[in-house]
Design a protein that fits this description.
five-stranded antiparallel sheet
Length: 647
């Protein structure tokens, strides 16, 4: 009875969190476990039994597991490590109490980012099991699959990218990483995990939520505060901090990622090729759902190119539906329907902007634009609005947005004068309630035979921000084109140029609340293309003269196609090549920057593909990337974590 009471008392004070575990170097083979191991469960007398048995652990989980033979998993050495889906047999002294047996604790080693996080559950189904070890007998113990995990702690994952060792201090107290015996992180890639806990939650690595502002990185005796405050850190997250050294020798610490402590973050990374969409006529359009837990993809069906197909894919790669039907314009015979863009509404319907190659009732060829609201659940059309050859959208990205029940479409109108074609800024606003269309063409300057395009828009609820470019010279000889960002009132009656950048083209603008990022391509003095972006905060702090952030890919030419915001990070995808047309050795890439413009990571591993088209973050700490295949007429989707790792 005393033994049971002791077990219950100890278990009641343990909290469900990742625990401070010895490193793998502390693992024993099992042959030494009977001598120490902190084993108080079966060897409590001074003359332990000399008769031995064996225990075979079968690991049914997807994680490596540390085994402890002890009352308390916070003390004692590791008995053995059982690999994921593997087995391990160890020799142990027979149990001193044949009725109670020994207690074995399971510590799951969860891979998140580039570190292993030890996790112990208080649940008997996955946290521990008891078994009796008998002389000359083998005892089988099953380690159950771990389906979920929760933690009341937060964690720092520190990456040392400098040429010197570093360590962490909390005030004047030196911190030791979880699972380590020394304070220092090795140079050029060394990592350490530090637990952050409220004092009432139990043991921690020495950092509390009340003292995060005191944490410093120490490099060559110089201390640098981490860029986080108490209010920035939330239990259940892992905060990856990259430590780098600038050319001036200064230590720069940037928040690389905030990853949920969730086994699904790494377990559910996936990728697949899709042949349902025909990339000859239409590159599919991909947007996050309103809930943020699904990605909606709409494109042209390969089998029925005059219709459209919709796919809903959840964060774990499960295709919720795959339907190849859609809307065909009345009174027209159409060769194909190209999905320009779409918007999801709260009522479950979608408003799609379709570009149709059609034959009119009079028998003439026509490029017909249709704004149609369609319900894919009931296969009914709610309303539609036709536009005939009024806008030019071929160079655009994210051409539609919903702002206060108004649908905003940006692009360019084609004007012919004296045998020349001019492409002028164009905005169309369609009010869903009144069914009224407002078409605003900017006749600022059409005296030159060049493009003047709006390419993307963002609404913060108060104003509409529209990006684009003017005076584009597609030979890049004059370098006269300018990327521009305009702020329009909601009724489109007033406008203000908020930013202009010479030798630039803006392709995309995306935002979150009052913040936005616009990206595209920049031509340097050597006529090489570089991906570039600016943020609202950069413009606000430095005015229209702000220098954009430039990216140098390992090829001569590169540009950003799409941008998304994830927390304090800017994540962009694009295309690199050895010619500005993007046809010579094309390569898609993904890069991430922190809020200060420091490059966090880049991914250039998609060598079978020619272009990264769209990128969307998921709520489980991953992103979904749309890639165009080099040799196949398919689109490839890959789900990767926000550290840039993918399967």
């Amino acid at each position: 009875m005393k033994h049971h009471i002791l077990v219950l008392i100890i278990l009641s004070i343990l909290f469900i969190s990742c625990i401070v575990a010895p490193s793998d170097s502390g693992s024993s083979t099992g042959n030494n476990s009977g001598n120490n191991n902190g084993n108080t469960s079966g060897n409590q007398n001074n003359n332990p039994p000399s008769k031995n048995g064996t225990v075979t652990f079968t690991n049914n989980s997807d994680f490596d597991v540390n085994i402890y033979e002890t009352f308390n998993p916070y003390v004692g050495d590791i008995l053995c490590v059982v690999s994921a889906k593997g087995t391990k047999t160890v020799e142990l002294q027979q149990s001193s109490d044949a009725s109670l047996g020994d207690v074995f604790y399971f510590e799951y080693l969860i891979d998140i980012g580039n570190a292993k996080f030890p996790y112990w559950s208080k649940a008997s189904s996955s946290g521990w099991k008891t078994a009796v070890v008998n002389e000359n007998e083998n005892t089988n113990i099953q380690i159950d699959e771990l389906y979920n995990c929760e933690t009341s702690s937060a964690y720092f994952l520190i990456e040392n990218n400098t040429n010197s060792t570093i360590h962490l201090n909390n005030g004047n107290t030196t911190l030791i990483p979880v699972g380590a015996n020394v304070r220092d992180l090795s140079p050029n890639g060394g990592c350490g995990v530090y637990e952050i806990s409220k004092p009432v939650l139990g043991e921690s690595a020495g950092i509390t939520l009340n003292g995060i502002e005191l944490v410093t990185v120490v490099k060559d005796t110089k201390k640098t505060l981490i860029p986080l405050n108490n209010e920035d850190v939330v239990a259940g997250n892992i905060y990856t901090l990259a430590v780098n050294t600038e050319l001036r020798g200064e230590t720069i610490i940037s928040l690389k990622s905030v990853t949920p402590f969730n086994i699904d973050t790494q377990k559910k990374i996936w990728s697949f090729d899709e042949a349902v969409f025909d990339t000859v006529y239409s590159t599919p359009v991909m947007h996050p759902s309103i809930s943020g837990k699904e990605t909606i993809i709409i494109g042209t069906s390969q089998k029925e190119i005059d219709k459209v197909a919709v796919r809903r894919i959840n964060e774990y790669g499960e295709c919720l539906d795959s339907t190849g039907a859609g809307f065909t314009p009345e009174e027209y015979t159409c060769n194909y329907s190209k999905v320009v863009d779409f918007i999801e509404h709260e009522d479950g319907s979608f408003t799609m902007l379709l570009q149709n190659s059609c034959i009119s009732p009079e028998g003439t060829e026509i490029e017909l634009y249709v704004l149609v609201n369609f319900n894919f659940n009931t296969w009914t059309k709610n309303w539609s609005k036709y536009f005939s050859d009024f806008t030019y959208l071929d160079q655009s990205k994210n051409k539609m947005l919903l702002c206060n029940n108004n649908i905003i479409i940006v692009g360019g109108t084609v004007i012919e004068q004296n045998g020349h074609e001019f492409y002028l800024y164009d905005i169309a606003k369609y009010n869903i309630d009144t069914k009224e269309l407002t078409d605003v063409i900017d006749y600022n300057d059409y005296s030159v035979d060049k493009y003047q395009m709006f390419t993307s828009a963002y609404c913060d609820g108060t104003d509409i921000y529209i990006c684009g470019f003017k005076d584009w010279d597609d030979t890049y000889d004059t370098l006269s084109h300018k990327g521009e960002i305009w702020k329009y009132s909601l009724d489109l009656s007033t406008k203000e140029l908020v930013y202009s950048s010479d030798r630039s083209l803006f392709f995309t603008i995306e935002g979150n609340g009052n913040n936005y990022v616009a990206c595209g391509e920049y031509v340097d003095s050597g006529k090489l293309l570089k991906g570039f972006y600016v943020t609202k905060s950069m413009i606000k702090n430095s005015g229209s003269e702000v220098e954009p952030i430039l990216y140098n890919a390992p090829k001569n030419y590169n540009w950003f196609e799409q941008v998304c915001l994830y927390g304090n990070k800017v994540i962009l995808c694009g295309k690199a090549a050895k010619d500005f047309a993007g046809e010579k050795e094309p390569l898609p890439f993904v890069v991430a920057y922190d809020s200060k413009g420091n490059l966090l990571w880049e991914n250039l591993s998609y060598t079978n593909y020619s272009e990264a088209i769209t990128i969307i973050p998921n709520t489980i700490g991953t992103y979904l990337l749309m890639l165009k295949h080099k040799n196949k007429n398919v689109i490839h989707y890959v789900n990767a974590d926000l550290l840039g790792n993918e399967k």
